[in-house]
């Protein structure tokens, strides 16, 4: 594996993976199994940092049996829902078990194609490879509505990305959570323990946790939903539907947690929020659980739409040797989920092998292939 020497030096490898989360690790598993030489860079201080830096009470919506990366089961009671730190710990164990080295604290500031290779500039030198995989996940730049600009200094505002616990909220003040995907519903429930919480509902599908005594994901896997592809008739419909909130309903949020349901936010003026039904209310804090938009300002390769979304076919871009991994609906319904990234990683691994077979690859090999 390429070792880091002094800053500003150039490090060369056959494959460069940018992002050491679940997608990058899954691909590393397959590359290592083939004895392919590769480098994984991650900007965080430790493996699993993206999971550790979420709100304190966060749990997965997927039960343990459906959170496996290739080659290693996610340990835990069969129908329990892992805490975020359990996921981070699992990623650490995974990298250790398969000797997948992740170079942390490597922040990539620029990626360019130079001749037949790619060059990534980082805070710890330049990395060069004929193959680059962008495995930085689906969550980049927080999407915050224009209405947020109308709030004044009396209102504590943050995106769900920055929410950790109710301690960040002003004591005794009403809190508004805007956006009701799984994050919005989860944060609203977390805050309701200490604050009066209002939840502004949007276009959301609500799904029961259990059906006929079985978990929703048991039924989903029985019916083959995780393997629905983006280019299928069903997939083309599903990927344009709103995200589903699993395991609760607006009525339960109100009855069990005392959360007041509101209609869509139309304006914010000072500390007063106006809703689509004509009502208004004053708040001391607003959490915008309004999703993310893709953001790759550091990638200087023309593989994006005018809106900045990645352009690819099953993760393969029009730029030779450049791939995406871990995006929502990369190819499958569960392409961005912990238990779904493995299938896409296996496919990208084979694409990389095919591409490198047409070149004169570096002679350096990974020190130990996974049996």
Look at the helices and sheets and give the structural class.
Answer: alpha/beta
Low-confidence stretches: 1-7, 361-371
User: What would you report as the Rg, rounded to the nearest angstrom?
Assistant: 22 Å
Give a count of the beta strands, DSSP E runs of length 2 or more. 23
Per DSSP, the total helix count is 8
Q: Which band does the percent of strand residues land in? A: 15-25%
Net shape: globular
Query: What would the CATH topology of the largest domain be?
Result: FAD/NAD(P)-binding domain
CATH homologous superfamily classification of the largest domain: FAD/NAD(P)-binding domain
Strand order within the widest sheet?
Answer: 4-3-2-8-23
CATH architecture of the largest domain: 3-Layer(bba) Sandwich
| Number of separate domains | 2
What is the helix content? 10-25%
Instruction: Describe the main β-sheet briefly.
Output: 5 strands, parallel
- How confident is the prediction overall: mean pLDDT? 92
């Amino acid at each position: 594996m390429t070792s880091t020497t002094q800053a500003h030096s150039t490090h060369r490898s056959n494959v460069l993976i940018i992002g050491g989360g679940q997608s990058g690790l899954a691909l590393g598993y397959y590359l290592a199994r083939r004895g392919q030489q590769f480098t994984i860079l991650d900007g965080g201080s430790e493996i699993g940092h993206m999971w550790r830096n979420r709100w304190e009470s966060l749990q997965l919506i997927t039960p343990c049996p459906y959170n496996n990366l290739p080659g290693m089961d996610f340990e835990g009671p069969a129908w329990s829902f892992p805490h975020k730190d359990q996921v981070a710990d699992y990623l650490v164990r995974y990298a250790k078990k398969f000797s997948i080295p992740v170079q942390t604290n490597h922040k990539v500031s620029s990626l360019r194609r130079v001749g037949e290779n790619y060059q990534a500039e980082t805070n710890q030198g330049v990395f060069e490879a004929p193959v680059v995989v962008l495995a930085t996940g689906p969550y980049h730049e927080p999407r915050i509505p224009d209405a947020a600009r109308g709030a004044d200094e009396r209102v504590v505002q943050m995106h769900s990305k920055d929410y950790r616990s109710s301690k960040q909220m002003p004591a005794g003040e009403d809190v508004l959570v805007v956006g009701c995907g799984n994050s919005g519903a989860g944060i609203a429930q977390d805050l309701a323990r200490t604050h009066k919480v209002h939840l502004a509902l949007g276009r959301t599908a609500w799904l029961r946790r259990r059906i006929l005594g079985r978990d929703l994901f048991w039924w989903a896997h029985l019916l083959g939903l995780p393997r629905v592809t983006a280019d299928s008739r069903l997939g083309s419909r599903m990927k344009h539907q709103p995200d589903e909130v699993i395991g609760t309903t607006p009525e339960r949020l109100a009855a069990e947690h005392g959360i007041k349901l509101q209609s869509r936010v139309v304006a914010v003026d000072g500390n007063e929020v106006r809703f689509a039904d004509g009502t208004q209310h004053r708040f001391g804090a607003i959490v915008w659980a309004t999703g993310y938009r893709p953001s790759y300002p550091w990638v200087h390769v023309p593989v994006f739409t005018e809106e900045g979304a990645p352009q690819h076919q099953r993760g393969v871009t029009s730029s030779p040797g450049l791939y995406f991994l871990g995006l929502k609906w990369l190819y499958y319904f569960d392409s961005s989920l912990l238990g779904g990234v493995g299938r896409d990683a296996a496919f990208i691994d084979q694409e990389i092998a095919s591409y490198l077979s047409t070149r004169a690859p570096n002679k350096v090999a990974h020190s130990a292939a996974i049996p």
